[in-house]
Structures are given as structure tokens and as C-alpha cells.
């Protein structure tokens, strides 16, 4: 490995045909290689086309990208995202280095730069989501929730703990083979429907109908407050109709089709549960299970199972070639894990939620 390492902030390209596109594509390849090495699968890997629109969205998710190079080759990256909510103390950071270039100070250099950027933006709470392989025994590290574990001697765990980050939460990474579980879906939907009297199902492919929009604003905002976050203490996100439409446009610009199923409370007319799938342009690639939420006031009626099973049935019609669905769920979110396991999702890896409080670190003697 070359001794000289160069760090430079990347310019996010306007398109994948213009200036900066080659670096962006190479960065995505590096990102995906690191994740696949960690969990033993590339089924969670996005394409450059899918990622670029979100990187171009500086209204809702402003990010900066730091690249590490040796001999001109990108061997690592650092990412910082600054939530736009007023008064937020949070910065999301991510540091990734290719295996052959680790233990050479590259990750440390990347993280130090990101932490400096966070301090310059008056962000004092750093949060990171890190891919881990499935825990297979041996020395373990558990979050305060007590749910889930990661290998205490894994390189990424040693790196994070040595730099003052603490593990707060573990999310399970799961996959579903749609073909194997297809017979379960109709019975699961019908059984849940019998227990959800007074609610009706509705599905949309692409942007949600205008008549859904106000309720979808509320549902998206409640995702940031109602979903289990353990000690990650996520900010309440501020959503409006324009933000929903920007999210949909970013997905479309990345070649992905959104498939959304909602449950309407018939007495009030309000949408009280929803789930989303993102179908890639190449229908043979894995589908991403995005948000699923049942608002607190309507839980305990099998609405989570109802909307998820119905949306997976709709997927068969919209994209018959789709075979695999991937998803993430907090390990302490047993109600949603019960739904996923009943539908056939199986664990393949973990994502750790890590946190560092800069003020607490500064006060430590």
C-alpha cells in the first residue's frame, strides 16, 4: 500500500455523465464493497443512479463527502449529514475504509475531519450507523436496550469504541425470498383483515394520490417519533407536502418505483398505517422495504401485518421479476419483527447505531 494518503472533499456531480461523476461512481463501489464484506452479501447495495438524487437534495438531507485516496484510487470515504431541523445538535457521520487499507490511520484521519466539520456547524451529538456481520458467538457487545449483539473484537467495533462512540441500538438486516413465501401472503393478509374491522386498504404505485398527501405528511413525521430509536434520540423531523413530493421525485430520478399501501380508518377517514417498497429499475435486483408505521392510537389491530402483506402481494403484480426484499428493523421492535418473521424475512446481518457526545467528551478529564 502506498504511504501517501490524500483527503479531499468531493464535488457532488449534477449528473452521472458530467464532472465528478467518475469519482461518485467509484465512491459508491467502495461503499458497497465495504458493506458486502461486513455482512457477506451485496443484496443491500444501492447503485450510483439510486443514490445521486438524495445527494443532490440539499434542502432535506444536506451532506458532505470526504474521499481518501492512495495513488489516485479511492480507498475510503467519510460522510457527514446535518439535519435541517431548527436547533438540532445532531450530525450523522460515517467512515468506511477498504479492508486492505485499514490500520494505517486512514479511518482516523477521515473521522477527525468529520468531527471538525460537525464542531464548526455547532453539532455536539454525533451519530453513526455501521454495518456488522451476524453475531456468531464469542466476546460480545450489547447496547443498553439488551436487544441484539455485535462481536466485540470486530474491527469496526474496536474502531468506534476507541474513539469514544458507544453502541446504543442494533437494527436487524433481513431478507425475504418472495417466491418462497408467496403462498403465505394471501392468508396473512386475509387473517389480518378479519381482525382489522373498520379499516380499508388502498395501494398506489408511484407518487401517492393528492387525497393522501396531508395524512402522508403526518405519517412520515411520526416515523421520526413513534419508531423505536433507543438512545439514538433522533430529532423530530419536520415534514410538509413539498417534502413528501421531493422524496418521491428523488426516488423516481434514481429509477426506483415507490409502492405504498395504507390503511384508512373508515370512521374518521384518516390514514393510520402505511408501508413502502422501493422497486429498482432493474427488476431483478432486490426491492427495499422502506418505512412501515402504525400510529400509536391504532396499534394492536394487526394493521402492520395487513399493510405489509398487502403491499407484498401488490409487488407481485407490479414487478413479477422481483425475488428478494431487504429491510431493517430495531431489535427491540418485537411487534414488527414478529410480522416480518411470519412473512418469511430472515436475518442476515446487523446495523449498529453508535453515538458520541462531544460536550461530554470535552468535559472528561
TrEMBL record:
InterPro entries, alphabetized: Acyl_CoA_acyltransferase, GNAT_dom
Start and end residues of each N-acetyltransferase domain: 22-189
Residue ranges of coiled coil: none
UniProt xrefs under SUPFAM superfamilies: Acyl-CoA N-acyltransferases (Nat)
Molecular functions per Gene Ontology: acyltransferase activity, transferring groups other than amino-acyl groups
Keywords: Transferase
UniProt protein name: Acetyltransferase (GNAT) family protein
UniProt lineage: Bacteria, Bacillati, Actinomycetota, Actinomycetes, Micrococcales
